[in-house]
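hey so u asked for the seq, here:
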Amino acid sequence: MELIPIIIYGIALLFIFCYSLIQIQLVVKYNRYKKLQKKRLGESTAVNFEPKVTIQLPLFNEKYVTERLIDCIAALDYPKDKLEIQVLDDSTDETQEITKAKVKEIRKAGIDIVYLHRTDRAGYKAGALAEGTKVAKGEFIAIFDADFLPEKDFVKQMVQPFTNEKVGMVQSRWEHINERYSMLTKLQAFGLDAHFSVEQGGRNAGHHFINFNGTAGIWRKAAIADAGGWQSDTLTEDLDLSYRAQLKGWEFRFLEEVGAPAELPAVMNALKTQQFRWNKGAAECVRKNLGAVLHSKDIDFGTKLNAIFHLTNSAVFISIVILALLSIPILSIKNTFEEYQVLFLLASAFLVTLPILALFYWTSMSQSYASKSKAFFHFIFLFPMFLAVSMGLSLHNAMAVLEGYLGKKSAFIRTPKFNLNNDKSKKWGTNVYLKRKINPITILEVALTLYFIGGILLGFYYGDFGIMPFHAMLVLGFGYVSFYSISHSFRTE
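ran it, structure tokens below
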């Protein structure tokens, strides 16, 4: 019977190892992307391409940030006669009146802006985008979530790749207006920066599928229509449409040099809401799109392999939970059954996963610092902390992934916005969109913190300290996540 947990443990280790190998090949391809990027930036653009663009702003109960958003979009440096702004407001609270007043004010300034309100929120964000697209005047459609504040030249830069008629979507890099607000926002920025550099850039350089990230990108309207339009049968309508469009042969571009500042969730439960939607939606897209990718005769093996791990990357959280839960039984088996020592020795080879992942995140972080020594000093603190908190979120995220794989449907829950920046004196406790209750998963996270403390004690009992750093990170991660899940639920200032 003791072989069963060993085999399950080994499978989880193998998946994470294979995932890390995919990440390291993206590092190699990202370095190629950086060379292409430098070449592109060094070439002058002879054609001043200024097509008609519609900007869509999907809103749902965003009273804290709606005015900030609309003011920013209205200030974009793009010919007024070539720009249309659609405010797609599904709000059910005072956001409606605030937004209507702001739209009226902007319209008086001579800007083509329309307010579209749905009383039936069918299809959630995907439904709102689909309705807006039906009446959009532009040949191209830019989309911004409520917390984004693009630079004035955003549209001018992002439309240039569309001179190639095969390009269906162009994605920019997310930046962060409140990265230094707290440790939680710093860790999110650390992870997102790796996605909006190594992952997106590496896949793009390798001519593999990338994804529209739901905001801060521009679509060719014809590509949306050709792919079947916006659909709401997954919680990640952006990833779903991205795969359907690329399966149709449309090319995507990632422009790392174009940044779009946005607000990071500063509250643990808001982050959990976002993470749940992203991870469950990705799992739903596996059910919907992976088969089509594997059966396509127009996609090469490398792209299929990258697509497999791109779509299933949220399954990493299931593997982490399996490794964590089985780590204590495995520790007991290791110190009780000598006949399995060879297996445990082989398993130690998978420790190479850690330096591989370190290189992946270092590649992203190092380029944002002028001083490599300063970057390294910050990295050796942030990387272990990021891994620990990712482990702490693994139970919550794994539950989302399992729901997605099993086909359990749930509503699209928006991530609350707070109108924060790096000013730590700004408070968020009075935000009316926050949920003030303790989720049962949080109770389990507390229990797991105690469970892994037991694992540390068991290591001392056996005098076996090999797995103790893993247990220490699990204690830190689950302790951090559960503590802030509870304390943030009761903060009112």
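The CA atoms of residues 63 and 94 lie 7 Å apart. The mean pLDDT is 95.
lmk if thats what u needed
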